[in-house]
Write a structure and sequence with these properties.
This protein is mostly beta strands. The chain contains no helices and 29 strands.
Length: 297
């Protein structure tokens, strides 16, 4: 069932920190410390576009729900938008977010907003259409390292460098929960497809599963030997994947709360991973500059 089906080495000139797989159009987008984003065919890893414009390493990349645009954040403090269909930069939409005001960025499920984390602990909500800051959600916490929308669009969560997790009600902007359980920086998180669960990964090597509505930790999973850097939920709702600085990617059975597969084909830490639309394949990217695609269903 689980197997490596495609591997592309030296896909970038430096480590690859982020990856997204479009729900429409079957395209993979990678972002690298070499300042570029690249677009690949999801079935073959054939190169389609190279997107240039950032001046420092690309931290994150996300694809709009309709599969037409890409948003990226960078150490150059710029939020940039790209036309995924034509491989061009949408210069009129570039946002100068200011120093460390846009760490990782994600699209809202309706594609109208971009949420980014900031160094002062806030979540910044930007208009994707008008390219301006609409509001700030305050945590009064530490550096916000990761953000995630629930698929139903009702929740927005973030993880901080001190291990805290905050969950907001999107319609009102009100903070609903402060979740505890991690002892170190929370670098990654993902909601389940039904928006009922939030899964988080931390430098404490743990993966925690939270009940979003009741704000309690259901399980804390051990398996990675170092920091947990990336998480993604499969469309089958039964599995999720994780990547770590131990150079491994893992598939977990949600119901059994256990790892069912470990991939150790990378030679560097696994910064990002993403499932395709139906959950049958998983793409992973690494500090080793390679892209791997696995059969998962």
């Amino acid at each position: 069932m689980y197997s490596l089906v495609s591997q592309l080495k030296n896909a970038h000139e430096d480590g690859i920190w982020s990856v997204a797989w479009s729900k429409r159009g079957n395209k993979i987008v990678t972002g690298s410390v070499d300042d570029t984003l690249k677009v690949w065919a999801g079935d073959s890893l054939d190169p389609i576009h190279t997107l240039e414009g950032h001046e420092l390493g690309v931290i994150s990349a996300d694809i709009s729900p309709d599969g037409t645009n890409v948003v990226s954040t960078s150490l150059d403090s710029q939020i940039r938008f790209w036309d995924l269909l034509h491989g061009t930069r949408i210069e009129a939409k570039t946002i100068d977010a200011g120093p460390v005001e846009a760490w990782t960025g994600v699209y809202s499920p309706d594609g109208r907003h971009i949420a980014t984390g900031s160094h002062d602990g806030n979540i910044n909500i930007w208009s994707a259409e008008e390219s301006k800051l609409e509001r700030k959600l305050e945590t009064r916490g530490k550096f916000t390292m990761c953000v995630a929308y629930s698929p139903n669009g009702l929740f927005l969560a973030c993880g901080a460098e001190n291990g805290a997790i905050y969950v907001f009600d999107v319609p009102t902007g009100r903070m609903l929960h402060t979740l505890t359980g991690h002892a170190m920086c929370v670098r990654t998180m993902t909601f389940s497809p039904d928006s009922m669960l939030l899964i988080t990964g931390s430098d404490d090597k743990r993966i925690n599963i939270y009940d979003v509505n009741h704000a309690n930790c259901l399980s804390s999973l051990a398996g990675h030997q170092s920091w947990v850097l990336s998480l993604a939920f499969s469309a089958d709702t039964a599995h999720f994947a994780s990547g770590g600085s131990d150079k491994r990617a893992k598939i977990w059975d949600l119901k059994a709360r256990q790892c069912v597969q470990t991939f150790d084909d990378h030679e560097g830490q696994v910064w990002g991973l993403a499932y395709n639309d139906d959950g049958s394949r998983l793409v992973t990217v690494s500090e080793d500059r390679s892209i791997n695609i696995y059969q998962t269903g």
